[in-house]
Amino acid sequence: MHTARTVRELRSFREGLPGPVALVPTMGALHAGHASLVRRARAACRSLIVSSFVNPLQFGAGEDLGRYPRTPEDDARLLADEGVDLLFAPPEAEMYPRPQEIVVQPLTLAQHCEGLRRPDHFRGVATVVLKLLNLCRPQQAYFGEKDAQQLAVVRRLVADLHLDCDIVACPIVREADGLALSSRNRYLSPSERAAAPNLHRALQVIATALASGRSDVNALLADSRARMSPLRCDYLAVVRPDEFIPLDAVPADSELLAVGAAFAGNTRLIDAVKARTPKRPTEENVR
Ligand code: AMP
User: Fold this and answer.
1) Which of 11, 38, 61, 203 qualifies as a cystine partner to 258, CB 3.0-4.6 A?
2) Is 168 in contact with 238 (CB distance < 8 Å)?
């Protein structure tokens, strides 16, 4: 595996890569969730680039940029073992040689759920993803469904700016108790770790109820919020996967998402569970 730390090195190595080329963008501190994206990309494309960059533009003031986990040696070993051709791991000054004057601002997609709690987050994500797509020029880029709103933003970035790249969504990899794997899970104390699956459980309860025809979304969300203790609920919502506007009423026969975020101590967890609503609400479930 070749490692590029500069834009110049990346461009020169990219020239020699046979297509199709896949890109898996990450912030490092890799785990089995990242590995599942890497494996799918490896199987689908002739050449595989993984980027590892903790993007300061997507962190808000008071968030965990300074203490975000960094495990570069372990990451490089994992990626070499998975047959990655090129690791792009630039320092901040390579990606942002001067303050960024031009940014990509998602509009309504960034106004709800994560976007409401993390102002400017998706602007940072969209801007860095556009940079990475321009630099790596992949035919396919792989993203996890765990960051479901990010996936929606990236899909619109590619569609709205006419980028020539397929976005491939990959399912969430979970621990045996349902907790979605995340680089931030290593912050959790034993008692926080024990409580952390409550977020997934709450989302599952919501998704199962919606699938069985329940349509009183707000009562359902209030019930689930109450059951998440000792986690501190940040938000729970039911959304369309391409819009992320919280729904008060659910449409029939639709693919929806139950999404949410919660704090275990100071660590913020996010998760998403799919819910398909039935063709028609059943009578006993309409309240
Ligand atoms: P990150 O390093 O957290 O920016 O994540 C890099 C990519 O890996 C993103 O597309 C994430 O959605 C994806 N990812 C992170 N955790 C998981 C997981 N548990 N299952 C599947 N994909 C994941």
Assistant:
1) 203
2) no
